[in-house]
# Entry
Amino acid sequence: MEIVYHIGAHCTDDDALLKSLVKNRRPLAGEGIALPGPPKYRRVLSEAVGDAVQGKDMRHTRDSLLEEILPSPDAHRLAMSNRNFFCVPNRIFEGGSFYHLADAKLQALGEIFAEDDIEIMLAIRDPASFIPAAFAQSSGTSFERFMAGVDPDLISWSDLIDRIQHAIPDVKLTVWCDEDSPFIWPHVLRAMAGVDPGMRIVGGYDLIAEILTPEGIEKLKVYFRKNPPKSEGHRIKVLGAFIERFARPEVMVEEYDNPGISDEVLADFTDTYEEEVAEIAARDDITFLRPDIS
# Structure
């Protein structure tokens, strides 16, 4: 069985991946790819992972979980998503480190599905916007308590990637930047489903539709009908042009309460993030999805 789990990160998805992918549930089911609804697995899987972390005997858990989760016994791939798999936003920096619960929970997931092929999907985001957005999703706490003493300069997606690979040896890991999601959404959907790049996928322009005005999305549809993209680079350039002309201002500029980090420091975060993304993209031990503008 192929077990693919999209684990966030926080403030990169808000279940958009599931909402897009579920539009393809019927054809994917015909290919043996199961897309159960979140109520079918989030609670029971979180409880099982919690039990494994506590050291309970999980030898017979895998089969009972799949029996409860899978809509069809004929499925060979199970696709799930839970941005709170590691923790809720309030606990991102709990314990004085970035996603400190990740190691134990991933190791537990690997133990439960030890006989299966595990794939992890992870979107990353510029800390300059990730930190304010995640703090906005936390509740009833000060920024100092939210950060739990963690120096924002030390947030490292590369380190998290290393920890995922250490926790689940031989894991197949797919990573992309949240900032690129509107441009590469069809590829993200296909990667999650595990289907051929040429398979038709519905929902590939869902994120673009959220960005553009109604007039813009209609004009985009007409343009692509009359001018089918000649290449992936051509498709990306057209999307960029339409965003530049028809983007809804309230979508392009996210407003968050200032958590007390200066604009200069936020700019430094972005510079560091861009350097880290280049390093991540160059890795040969993960699949990194990014726009192809060639």
